[in-house]
User: Fold this.
Amino acid sequence: MGLLQILRNEVLLTAVLGWFVAQLLKVIIASIKHRKIDLSRMVGSGGMPSSHSAFVVALATRIGSLKGYDSVEFAIAFCFALVVMYDAAGVRRAAGKQAEILNRIIDDLMHNKLKQEKLKELIGHTPIEVLAGAILGLMIGLYYK
Assistant:
């Protein structure tokens, strides 16, 4: 049965665990930093550590440990992981910085009674956040069985 096979797919479960642990760490870190529990961080993008990085590195690591680090499957997962991490630290980070600047402009305009929707600023990651997510994903990919 298809759904049961998906639920038993250890590669997929490892990747999802990497994502889940990273998102849980975001909630914990944000709660400590802001001294209140913010469960929205469980599904939000951006922040420490990168759940995108944890997800794809856990995926690639588990594939490598099962199929071999010289396999075609690992090569595909590794390249996929690099693209996702580059995007998280590059394109999405730049978009977040642009949103921050636009929100400042909107704040200035709102003083003149204009109503504008604020843009989401926390959509990308710093290189450190990406690295932390990658290390988390590597550890989960190597040790979760």
Observations:
- The chain has a mean pLDDT of 83.
